[in-house]
Amino acid sequence: MTKRALIIVDLQNDYFAGGKFTLVGIDAAAANAARLLDAARAAGDLVVHVRHEFPSADAPFFVPGSHGAEINKSVLNRDSEPVVLKNSINAFRGTALKEILDHNGIDEVVIAGAMSHICIDAITRAAVDFGYKATVVHDAVATRDLEFNGIIVPAAQAHAAFMAALGFAYATLLSTDELLAKSRVLDVTA
Fold first, then answer.
1. For the Isochorismatase-like domain, which residue ranges apply (predicted)?
2. With 77 labelled, which of 6, 49, 100, 134 sits at a CA distance of 20 to 30 A?
3. Would you say residue 44 has pLDDT above 60?
4. Domain spans of the chain?
């Protein structure tokens, strides 16, 4: 039987309105992540929260010890849920994430959070490279407008491009409703 973990990546205050690096669609993504969190807790799945802090106080956002670096109240961890602190893009790099997953016998990860084009991309690819089956809940993920060579790439297009790339060879892509419906079917047939 598959043993699954929900990993919520970087849903921290600086990404929300009033923060230092607001994302497009963050409120909707966080609301969906909160639904996933409730379902994972009810199912008894492992929940792992990932929190990013830059290593220095002059960081543009996620400054160590700041309110902006704290997990947003919409998906706040319980004391029993591990919080992985990372200082780089990939949540596996220099952290205990793999050890936590392996210690709990996890073979499938469900990923939600931010940002589509960087930390979600990195954790998904690394998870698959480590042998975990990955599902990205695409409407529980947010990003922001990007810029390349003077061209503005709207957040929706950046998100779609990265989800398409992950869905091509790395992860199953589901909406929150699809994952929750699929989970209910699995619970009934188990």
1. 5-147
2. 134
3. yes
4. 4-184
